[in-house]
Every structure is written in structure tokens, then in C-alpha cells.
Design goal:
It is built from 8 helices and no strands. The protein is an all-alpha fold and 191 residues long. The protein has one domain.
Length: 191
């Protein structure tokens, strides 16, 4: 039977994957990617998929620290989950995770109210997802999944997974902004 810490670690890795998928979908949506004309040549509603992966990512990311409360060895209190500055182990890493969770929450909540906020202001708010991703990946790489304050093993399979997710988001973000710059540079009649 896996411990609460093991479950929390696994759920954290799932959260990284779902958040990565959500960011990648968001980047495709922002470029106007059409899956009917391009791969996979199927009618897929990318925006709807992006929206629901965002809700799922938030729920899974919130479950990740909550599971630690059920550990008999971690000695975390609810306050340590909400405000982990004084958590029993890894306070810096846990604070980064909490900041990332709060930024994801901000992005999801403001997206829910995007029509009331207005598109331009909402888009500025939505850029916080990049900050959330950066902090989330740093948390995932620096934290010890067993909460034993061991040094970071950069080539551990879990860390390589998080680093790979970071690399995928970085690569597609660079592609997104260079493609957007090229598209804006084209003359209006060539479009």
C-alpha cells in the first residue's frame, strides 16, 4: 500500500503533465491552430480541451499537497499547506509550489470571468500562466518527493520528466512568439 507521501508525489507528477498539456494547448489556441486542416485532421475543439485541462490541472494540483495531510510521518498541518513558509520540511520548495498553485488558481478564476474582465485585460492576466509554469517546474525539480531533504538528483526519472515538460513548454513558447512575429511582419494583402 503506497503511503500518503508516495500518492502526493505521484499526483504532483500527474499535475505537471496536465499543466504542461494545458499550456501547450493554450499555445496552439493562441496561434489559431486548426486541427482539421493540420494534424490530426480531425474536428477537435482545442479551446474546450484547453479549458477543461485547466480545470483538471487546478484540481489535481490542489490535491497534491492536500494528500500530505494524511501522512503520519510528514507532520504537516493545514496551515503548512496553505502557507508553507514554516512547513516541517522543505519550506522554500513548498512555498514555491504554493505560489505556483495560487498563480494557476488566479489564471483559472480570471479565465472563468474573462468576458466580465474584458479580453485585453484578461489576456494580460493570463500571462501569469508562464510565471506559474516556471515556478511549478522549479518546485518539481527542487523538491524531494519523499520529504527527506535529500539533495537534488538531476537525472532521476521524475526530475527528467519535469525537465522534459519544461523543455517542451519552452520550445513551443519560443515557436509561438517567433511564428507570431513572422505573421505580423507579413504584408496585410499576403494573408
Amino acid at each position: 500500500m503506497p503511503s500518503a507521501i508516495d500518492l502526493s508525489s505521484t499526483v504532483g507528477l500527474i499535475a505537471v503533465g496536465v499543466l504542461t498539456a494545458n499550456i501547450l494547448l493554450g499555445l496552439l489556441v493562441s496561434t489559431g491552430y486548426n486541427p482539421v486542416r493540420r494534424w490530426p485532421r480531425r474536428r477537435i475543439k482545442l479551446f474546450l480541451l484547453h479549458k477543461w485541462t485547466g480545470y483538471s490541472a487546478l484540481a489535481i494540483a490542489a490535491l497534491h499537497p492536500a494528500l500530505i495531510l494524511f501522512s503520519s510521518t510528514a507532520h504537516f498541518r493545514p496551515l503548512d499547506i496553505v502557507f508553507p513558509v514554516w512547513s516541517p520540511t522543505q519550506p522554500v520548495e513548498n512555498t514555491l509550489g504554493a505560489i505556483a498553485l495560487y498563480l494557476v488558481t488566479f489564471a483559472v478564476v480570471t479565465s472563468y470571468f474573462r468576458y466580465a474582465i474584458g479580453f485585453h485585460r484578461w489576456k494580460l492576466f493570463h500571462y501569469t500562466t508562464y510565471a506559474a509554469a516556471a515556478v511549478f517546474y522549479v518546485h518539481g525539480v527542487l523538491s524531494d518527493p519523499l520529504l527527506q531533504n535529500r539533495p537534488v538528483d538531476w537525472i532521476d526519472a521524475e526530475k527528467v520528466y519535469v525537465e522534459g515538460c519544461f523543455a517542451a513548454v519552452t520550445a513551443l513558447t519560443i515557436w509561438r512568439f517567433t511564428a507570431g512575429r513572422r505573421r505580423r511582419a507579413q504584408p496585410a494583402r499576403a494573408r
